[in-house]
Amino acid sequence: MSEILERLRVETREAHEAIERDLAWETRVATHDGYRTLLARFWGFHVVLEPALADVLQDPTFFDPRRRLRHLAADLGVLGLGETTIAALPRASMTLPCDRDQAYGALYVLEGSTLGGQVIAKTIGRQLGFSPDHGCRYYAAHGRETGPMWKAFRQRLVEMAEAGDTDAIVASATRTFDAMRLWLCAAPVPLLDGEGRGPVVKVSHRG
Length: 207
Ligand code: HEM
Description:
Blueprint: H1 3-11, H2 13-23, H3 25-28, H4 32-57, H5 60-63, H6 69-78, H7 83-87, H8 100-128, H9 137-140, H10 146-162, H11 166-185, E1 188-191, E2 200-203
Antiparallel strand pairs: 1-2
Helix pairs in contact: 1-11, 2-11, 4-6, 4-8, 8-10, 8-11
The chain binds protoporphyrin IX containing FE (HEM).
Protoporphyrin IX containing FE (HEM) binds near residues 23, 109 and 120.
């Protein structure tokens, strides 16, 4: 395995484990409300990061098929959110990639998330009845093309890293994992208050 792929896998392992642990995705996709809240948080992340990646990469043939903001909007539409509501959803605040090394490090995280997404999509299908064509487009990601898309991404990453700064790529990937975890896990959780008068909105900060 090439140095950059090995370094990314090893040096972001802890960050991956942290997001898997803190996301509590099984609980969150067990109900319509939880699923909708989670998708809204992902929307707030992609809406900020995708345009920054497109600006830096300047390669629509490569990047456009990897954009998933539109899939999030489609799924949120199925879940009952109108366009105006979606556009007003909270947006993440994070350090944005400003060169190619940083962009590839961040894209590594987004593209890698399509792998775990395949498992999550199956659970959502079973539990909530959504399919890639209806309500679960985001997690279905590249569908049957997920494997080949991941392979192509890794090839591109290896080529790019030959002339790039490996430390900067790894640092950006780690930073992106952490920003995503903090953003997704700080989602407002609607709760009933102690006397059943709810719902009240409480912000939970895990991790
Ligand atoms: C949104 C949060 C997540 C992000 C950003 C993320 C990111 C990544 C990345 C970057 C990789 C590639 C690792 C490599 O270099 O080989 C990966 C692989 C993987 N992730 Fe995640 N992941 C997330 C959540 C999850 C969850 C919740 C699961 C469990 C359902 C999961 C399961 C997997 C699996 C099965 C692989 C493939 C391992 C392999 O085939 O080598 N991920 N993920």
